[in-house]
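for the recovery benchmark. tokens below, seq after
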């Protein structure tokens, strides 16, 4: 890691004249930023810089950063920003880096509706938004050999996030936006990785750190609820057993892809996955009752769900609840989220996350949480991790901690509360979630 940081600092020392002469965001500046942030510059390469208009003067740039020799040893870096002209981002002071969670990469997680989403809202209000697709997002459904995933756990994720943040800061410097640290937002599993990242970064000298403020969204790294801790231990044991049996990949994303495809091509057909439901109902159930994917003794929180919804009075003959509609998010947006699922995810990543929560096996990812002093904004959903995510923030050394939980239903009706994905998809998410995030960024 130190080589990466020192390389970035070397970039700072040699760029003042380049900044003035190169205001465009172009392939040459991307390559220079990547070389500066890579731990072994000769082993890294930038490619495929692309631009697409999202809405009005807000555009998304993407480019790939190769970090190894394997076919999937690359991350994709995203940038969403207002432009004064094509490939000319408007100057910005504030910045935010987004880290997705399980199943979905950056576009599916944060841009399911290209015109109405958190990155566009922030960009319109002067925030330079960046993000990453972790390496596993690019593994296709056609892949049949997964040994390369065996070591793709939290240590791997922290290293890749470090490089991506360095690339973003280097590119901002080249574009004239300065070299200030970036706020980091991690959703779901991405928030857990964010905790692990900040734990590691806290051990570096202050001038060598990338992150300013931290926004964990609907997640926890630790729990003070014994029932949830034991559930994490059971999930960890299941993941470790799967990997010991040679299953280095988790195929939950492939299942979500199947559910989405069937709901699109044959919505009225009988679901082969959820007996007694149509394919359309099966897709809605995936959002409204996401907790059914966990065995009863492995629930992370009670009745966890992606989207709040309504149900028929009577269950299906199979006993499954019959969903009738969504309460907070447009159905089209939620179905677009499902459609963007990446088929495979590393078993090692999931096992590492559960081991950190379980807290019975020593792992390095949480060794220095009490050394983390970054300002923190915790955002939760009443039907997701909600209030259960607050405890993790109390383990940090941070003294500036703000909590924002969108809780729209009584505790006994948690099943119908604002969900894990409603935070980004909800019709009222701009008022309930995005604007508070923007206000916090402006103050930090």
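predicted aa per position
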């Amino acid at each position: 890691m130190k080589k990466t940081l020192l390389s970035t600092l070397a970039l700072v020392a040699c760029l003042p004249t380049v900044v003035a002469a190169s205001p465009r965001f172009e392939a040459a500046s991307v390559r220079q930023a990547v070389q500066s942030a890579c731990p072994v510059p000769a082993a890294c390469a930038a490619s495929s810089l692309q631009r697409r208009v999202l809405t009005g003067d807000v555009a998304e740039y993407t480019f790939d950063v190769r970090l190894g020799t394997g076919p999937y040893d690359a991350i994709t870096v995203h940038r969403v920003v207002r432009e004064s002209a094509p490939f000319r981002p408007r100057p910005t002071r504030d910045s935010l880096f987004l880290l997705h969670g399980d199943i979905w990469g950056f576009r599916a997680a944060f841009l399911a509706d290209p015109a109405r989403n958190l990155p566009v809202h922030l960009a319109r209000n002067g925030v330079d938004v960046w993000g990453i697709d972790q390496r596993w997002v690019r593994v296709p459904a056609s892949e049949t050999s997964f040994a390369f995933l065996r070591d793709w756990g939290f240590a791997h994720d922290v290293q890749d996030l470090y490089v991506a943040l360095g690339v973003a800061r280097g590119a901002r410097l080249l574009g004239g936006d300065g070299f200030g640290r970036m706020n980091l937002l991690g959703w779901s599993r991405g928030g857990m990785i964010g905790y692990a990242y900040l734990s590691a970064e806290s051990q570096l000298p202050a001038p060598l750190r990338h992150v300013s403020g931290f926004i964990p969204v609907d997640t926890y790294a630790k729990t003070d609820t014994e029932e949830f801790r034991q559930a994490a231990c059971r999930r960890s044991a299941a993941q470790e057993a799967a990997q010991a049996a040679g299953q280095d990949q988790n195929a939950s994303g492939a299942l979500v892809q199947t559910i989405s495809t069937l709901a699109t091509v044959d919505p009225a057909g009988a679901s082969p996955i959820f007996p007694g439901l149509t394919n359309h109902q099966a897709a809605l159930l995936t959002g409204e009752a996401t907790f059914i994917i966990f065995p009863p003794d492995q629930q992370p929180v009670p009745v966890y769900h992606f989207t709040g919804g309504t149900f028929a009075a009577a269950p299906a003959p199979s006993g499954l609840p019959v969903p009738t509609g969504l309460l907070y998010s447009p159905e089209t947006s939620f179905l677009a989220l499902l459609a963007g699922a990446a088929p495979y995810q590393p078993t090692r990543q999931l096992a590492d996350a559960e081991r950190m929560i379980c807290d019975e096996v020593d792992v390095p990812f949480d060794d220095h949480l009490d050394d983390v002093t970054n300002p923190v904004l915790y955002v939760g959903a009443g039907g997701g991790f909600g209030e259960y995510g607050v405890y993790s923030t109390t383990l940090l050394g941070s003294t500036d901690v703000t909590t924002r939980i969108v809780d729209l239903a009584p505790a006994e009706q948690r099943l119908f509360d604002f969900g894990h994905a409603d935070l980004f998809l909800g019709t009222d998410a701009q008022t309930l979630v995005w604007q508070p995030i923007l206000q916090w960024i402006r103050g930090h």
